[in-house]
Amino acid sequence: MSITTEVTAHYWAFAVFLAGAVGLCCFMLLGGFLLGGRAHSRSKNVPFESGIDPVGTARLRLSSKFYLVAMFFVIFDVEALYLYAWSVSIREVGWIGFFEAAIFIIVLLAGLVYLVRVGALDWTPERSQRLRRAGPVAENQRHQQ
């Protein structure tokens, strides 16, 4: 088989794949349009979940600590994924793989220790932190006054 025939066959395979993907997308959009409901009313566009009508607005102001915890979750979830893959191939990677995984865990633990030390995981309000630093004696004196 010549090189030009091989290249042409490769491009045809890609063209068939692309046409199939675009055709499938168009079919799904057209099917939803033709089979979808046509009812229009004021309450049609109102969100409805679990049989409860919505109250208030969905725009809540959340503390940035919620996003910080979400990022921690993603980081440590990815860590678990890597360690699972490492544990599945433990016999193939040998001692070198073990030391690489140990270094990986140590770096992540160092990051966790740093986050604890700077207070990124401390959710206590500022007032409670001041009382905790002052100790129980200062709190007893404050209640006696």
From TrEMBL:
Reaction equation(s) it catalyzes: a quinone + NADH + 5 H(+)(in) = a quinol + NAD(+) + 4 H(+)(out)
Oxidoreductase as a keyword of this entry, yes or no, is: no
Q: Which Gene3D superfamilies match?
A: NADH:ubiquinone/plastoquinone oxidoreductase, chain 3
One GO MF term, please?
A: NADH dehydrogenase (quinone) (non-electrogenic) activity
Where mainly found? membrane
TM ranges: 12-35, 66-87, 93-116
Q: How does it assemble?
A: NDH-1 is composed of 13 different subunits. Subunits NuoA, H, J, K, L, M, N constitute the membrane sector of the complex.
Q: Per its record, how is this protein called by name?
A: NADH-quinone oxidoreductase subunit A
The EC number(s) attached to this protein equal 7.1.1.-
The text of the family note is: Belongs to the complex I subunit 3 family.
